[in-house]
Design goal:
about 325 residues, mainly beta, Pectate Lyase C-like, elongated
């Protein structure tokens, strides 16, 4: 009998250990959401969750959330390296009166080596009362994070900051946006403003390829200590300026190539300070003012049809291009 009692005791202790370990094992490398899911589910393919917020706590570090079918999956705060990818499925975030996605890097775990967030094929609808489609903050504790936004649509942010993408990190980092449209924002389509704009090592490096920013006050705004590369993009119908940079406190660089800025108040604006704007093979047309402030040109831009020509760019190197290009 004593031996039997000891075996029963050991078995019971083993069950307790297993039960205690279960929550840590519940996180999956891939989880699923569905328009008819339930956040009480384990977020598996056969028992999906209802929202991104419900799925993220059940998704492992560096894991991925996918969408089974079309639906509105709600706003979410991301505090670890993760992918949300709903490609080939209509996935929406309705961010009326709030932000669609918050990425506060200082809430990431220090052991999170990658510090990378990937958002793909999501439609953000602020219903004209949204604040920010995507807001990126932090950096004072966890710096050098990476955010990738691909194949997204951000629309209807007119409350509060009224921005499509707002990158306000203090400790610097990287932002990559491609194949994405941002429209109808009350303030700025994409706002790059390092919170510590006087420290060179805390720069935000951004790359934009094939983006569209339309019907905002400012299309792309790059602040002190930001560095942006823009390629194959369109900035149109923005009330004040299509592209503006202001580097009053620290070196700021913006390079725009193979892009169009049209029907804006100003096509390209240098807001003053220690900054450089370089232009290559762009069309800057039908704006109130083509270019405002100093820019540099590879002399292959077409700056025509603006109500006011504005400031002629300074050539880089020797001018050898056909007549009419600047």
């Amino acid at each position: 009998m004593p031996r039997t009692s000891m075996l029963i005791g050991l078995a019971a202790a083993s069950v307790v250990v297993l039960l205690q370990a279960a929550p840590a094992q519940a996180q999956a490398s891939r989880t699923w959401v569905s328009g008819v899911g339930d956040d009480a589910n384990p977020c598996s393919r056969t028992a999906p969750c209802k929202t991104f917020a419900g799925a993220i706590s059940k998704t492992a570090l560096n894991g991925e959330i996918n969408c089974l079918d079309p639906g509105g999956f709600g706003a979410v705060t991301i505090t670890k390296s993760i992918t949300i990818d709903c490609h080939e499925v209509f996935a929406s975030i309705l961010n009326s009166g709030t932000n669609g996605v918050n990425i506060p890097f200082d809430s990431f775990n220090a052991a999170d080596v990658r510090k990378t967030v990937r958002l793909r094929n999501i439609n953000f609808n602020g219903v004209d009362t949204g604040v920010n489609g995507i807001r990126i903050t932090g950096g004072s504790i966890i710096g050098a994070g990476v955010v990738l936004v691909e194949d997204c649509l951000i629309d209807g942010n007119f409350a509060g900051n009224a921005r499509g993408i707002s990158d306000e990190r203090i400790g610097g980092g990287e932002l990559y946006v491609s194949n994405t449209t941002i429209r109808n924002t009350g303030s700025v389509g994409i706002f790059i403003s390092p919170g510590n704009g006087t420290v060179a090592g805390q720069r935000i490096d951004a790359t934009f390829d094939n983006i569209r920013i339309q019907n905002s006050s400012l299309g792309l705004a790059v602040g002190a200590n930001g560095r942006a590369m823009v390629n194959r993009s369109v900035f149109s119908g923005n009330t004040n300026a299509g592209i503006v940079a202001n580097g009053a406190l620290a070196p700021t660089e913006v390079q725009v190539t193979n892009s169009a800025s049209s029907n804006n108040g100003i096509g390209v604006q240098n807001g003053g300070g220690a900054l450089t704007i370089r232009l290559s093979n762009n069309d800057i047309s039908f704006n109130g003012t083509g270019i405002s402030g100093a820019t540099q040109s590879f002399t292959n831009n077409r700056i025509v049809g603006n109500s006011q020509v504005g400031t002629a760019p300074t050539p880089i190197g020797v001018t050898t291009n056909p007549s009419g290009q600047q």
